Amino acid sequence: MESSGKRDGFTTTVGVIVATLGSAVGLGNIWKFPSLTGMNGGAAFLIIYLAMTLLVGLPVMISEHVMGRKARADAITTLQKLAPGSAWWLIGAAGVLSAFLIMAFYTEVAGWVFAYVIKALSGSLLSTDPAVTTQAFTTLVSNTWWSLIVQWVVLLWVAFIIVAGVSKGIERMTKRLMPILFAILLIICIRALTLPGAGEGLRFLFQPDFSVVTWGTVLVAMGLAFFKLSVGMGTMITYGSYFREDQNIPLTATRVMLADLLVSLLAGIAIFPTVFTYGFAPDAGPSLLFITMPAVFASMPAGGLFMVLFFVLAAVAATGAMLSLFEVPVAVLAERTKLSRKGATWVTFAALAVVGSLAALSSSTLADVHLFGMTFFDLFDYATQNILLALGGLFICLFAGWKWGSAAIQEQLSNGGTLNNGVVVKAYTIVVKYVTPILVFLVLLNGLGIV
């Protein structure tokens, strides 16, 4: 393998795991996973999701890690090094575009979360009436200047961490944030399990009812398994390029996948018992985070405290994901231009502040501006989630499974023969060649509304 030279990287195995986990864990774990589980029948969906994670998300993650570590470069240069003189570099370019567009709208959602931490501390969200919490959310997102300010604050927060570098910025921060995330989750879970409706909420989450499963349920689980591990957007190639030479990539990716699943399950345990106890709908969808949960917490004793903890938890989860997304274009600029890392960070910051404002103002000033029938916020979301990520994941599988070749995969996954993991490598090779591409293609067709 190539030497990383003076290039910054993760310094410890723990650093690799927490940084990668920080990328995979995001707001999707706190609201999207529980809400999709609620909308698709609970435990039966959970079982299908786990199977799809093993067949879809994990193989693509391993592929991206391997490619990044081998090339020791940004997402675009990685493909140029591994397949010189070909068009495969477009996979990396699509990943960079995906990461940028996701940050353009994700930072606005994160801004709402950060604003809700302040609102929770002030007590202004303490109402059991969903109409009141709905009005609080509508007031926030429809205010032009507040929408911009909260996004800029989030961008500054992430940029200052990125400027510090990979080891002193990303690794150091995620080492601090991930324990906080788990600690807060456990505290909220313990409180939720003491509520009268805990048993009903746990049955909903863990007792399968396969009578509600449809082909649509499988497609939703498949798509969630693919998107929730931050694959197909250049982040795992970029982070893989910072891995240590002796990193056991299959084991690391599996640990991250299981830890990500654990966070999602804990979020479900924290949410469903409280939702059932106070008579709210478990399938509230995205509004679960900003409308339903404040009303739920306002209904319980000491709810103000747990509401603050909940939104701090969401802010921590959002930060880890944003660090990996922000790092993708920064790495490209820093390694392919004459810009320093600091310069690349602030150029990326400025570009996101401009493009992101289109998403930030989609509920206020630009609410009536539509492209392809969608606001800018919805367009960025649709283009990435339904098209770019699936295309990126599909071609990553085709590259790893068919273009690169079994010998190169064997050499990388076994760390040059130092790891005795032949069975794992063989299983991965079969899945990434014959199973994952078909499933990711179905995700793409589903996103396009074809199936």
Protein model, in words:
The protein has 451 residues and is an all-alpha fold. The protein has one domain (13-447): Up-down Bundle (Amino acid/polyamine transporter I). The chain has 18 helices and no strands. The model is unreliable at 1-5 (pLDDT under 50).
What is the secondary structure topology, with strand pairs?
Elements: H1 13-24, H2 27-39, H3 43-71, H4 75-82, H5 89-122, H6 130-141, H7 144-163, H8 166-193, H9 198-206, H10 215-227, H11 235-240, H12 249-277, H13 287-298, H14 303-336, H15 341-360, H16 376-403, H17 406-413, H18 422-447
N to C succession of SSEs: HHHHHHHHHHHHHHHHHH
Strand content: under 5%
Low-confidence parts: 1-5
Task: Report the biggest beta sheet as strand number plus sense, adding barrel if it closes.
Answer: none
CATH architectural name: Up-down Bundle
CATH class: Mainly Alpha
The CATH homologous superfamily is called Amino acid/polyamine transporter I
Summed up, the helix count is 18
How far the N terminus sits from the C terminus, by CA atoms, comes to 42 Å
- Whole-number count of domains: 1
Q: What is the 3D form?
A: globular
Q: Roughly how much helix do the residues carry, as a percent range?
A: over 70%
The secondary structure category is mainly alpha
Average pLDDT taken over every residue: 89
CATH topology: Amino acid/polyamine transporter I
**Total strands:** 0
Radius of gyration: 21 Å
